[in-house]
Amino acid sequence: MRQMERELEMAKRGREFSLPLLRIRPRVSKQGVAALLFLSPAALIVLLFFVAPVLLTFWISLTNMSVATLGRTELIGFSNYLRILRSPYTSRILQNTLLYVSATLTFNVGMGLILALLTTHIEERVGVLFRALWLLPRITPSVVYALLWTWATAPAPFGTLNQVLGPLGLPSHNWLTTQPWGVIILANGFVGASLGMIIFTSAIKAIPPDYIMAAQVDGATTWQIIRRIILPLIRWPIMFVTAYQTLSLLASFEYILLLTEGGPGFYRTEVWALYAYHQALSNYFGNVQFGFGAALAAVLVAIGVVASVIYLRVFRFQQMMGEPKIEGV
Amino acid sequence: MRVSIERLTKRFGKVVAVQDLSLEIMDGEFVALLGPSGCGKTTVLLTVAGIYRPTQGWIRFDGKVVNDLPPRDRNIGMVFQSYALYPHMTVYENIAFPLTLRRMPRAEIHRRVMAAAQLLQIEELLDRRPGQLSGGQQQRVALCRALAKEPDLLLLDEPLSNLDARLRLLARAEIKRLQKELGITTIFVTHDQVEAMTMADRIAVLNQGVLQQFDTPEALYTRPANLFVAEFIGSPPMNFLEGSLTVHGSALRLTGPGWHVTLPEGLRSCAEAIRDRDRLILGVRPEHVRLASPEEGELRAEVYVIEPLGRDVLVNLRVGSLRLRALVPPSFPWKVGDIVSLHFDSAHLYLFDPHTGVLIGRS
Known about the structure:
heterodimer; A: mainly alpha; MetI-like fold; 15 helices; B: Rossmann fold; CATH 2.40.50.140; 26% helix
């Protein structure tokens, strides 16, 4: 008797549940198809230009592909990765990369912040002009920009820097040889700062002026307003620029290539991305090793992914995407 | 603290926001700056706060010129229209912010924050962030932040305009009571004449940066200095009839297209004094218009729209091309389209100069 009741109950329930399900299912799948259709162009681009190259790179990194072995390329497993681990240069290049990324990043974000604060605290028109000027290097071809730095830092009696320092009684230097890191970090940082400058400027301008006026009336000095009102309110843009710049600096090498080519001397300013480029595409006597270079690039991708995940966690990007942090009036 | 505004002019480029404004605000007084939007009232407030510098003229606190004193040295409490609560701080931190800037001991800050929070009954909100508060709560917090620093002068910029009608009524009474209890000199900016009338000791009416009148609410109502004040103060606004002055035997009449009004005894003296002027504007408030059957009076009108207000009825009337309003008891027998006669209370009539707008006289 009980058994029957239960079965009846279950049958009833089954009918109740199955009917709506049947009715809903086709609609869901139709929506799914539409969603896929709309997503497909973007998905295709991502697959073709982002995912496929990474997979290709990884595949090449498992081979001994080089100029010498072209046509008889063989899979050699993880030998290239083992070579990276055993290489005496790896730690040096890793240190260089760390120095380059962290120093340039600090200069970059700090300078962007200072520029944004300065140009929003002076007269509007002057500020706009100043920011426009600061953007010039960005729209200048990298080669031209690097050449300007090469000229400015050229050894005495040439070089703008030396010509200015000479009359002041200061010793002249062959700056690219004596201070290669300084020149690289400044050259990179001055270009890079413009991104932060623009993002921070718009964030500062988005702060309702009432907050600033209220803080003034409340007794804050300009410095206190910056530290206690403006900086906390533009915290998210600062984090975004920091994360974005870290990733782009990890992969960038063109100014180093143009200024020092990794020198002076042996790997003095060689960073990971430049090392990969050198091994894979521009090695001595055309001894280019695609396989080894690809392995180096794959490691860089892995570092980038790890850094992204850390940033996503530390800065709680999800929370940032969730709701606007600068609340309007 | 006594606040003197002397011949203040503030220009932004070519735009004159405030022109030659002089106000003397007594210690402990509650003064409203009243005017339509864009009349320069907020500019005056921000200049008193020290955010703007006067282009010309002086601001004095207790007789001392403070034109060059930065806002932080003025000991002012200010409530903004947007409340301007710092979104990244809790309510407690917001209220404590001005105090921490003064490097006050932590215990003293706590004491003051708690006392102010108790005064405004927001103790249970202290851990929240501004984003988690309702408009009314934000308003209280903003007021609390302004009061916790024990200011010499309180500036309120449209603090009620973001509240709903019911809350506004409550807050109005509360702010007025608080101001009297604490005795802080207060300047209050509003575009709402009811707010100004109900709360302020004196009202400065501004229009296009120029002071129109500075007086008590009663005086503004009974003796408006010009057409602007007469129309701005009082709800519904005063009726105006523009016409030319004509003599009929011993009587003086104001005549317009299709109507005429005989001026009462009380107005005749001043009307005679300006007899050479061809045109005049007669002003009468809706509450001083009485309706009667058409055969009783000289000024006849058509009932155009009837708006019941509960306690009274607001009747819109048409006299030729003129539109007039009358506030009458609800027991009135006419309906739309009826012809009635209008009777003006002869003790409450005003005459204005149509060219300058200035009040010539009142009965």
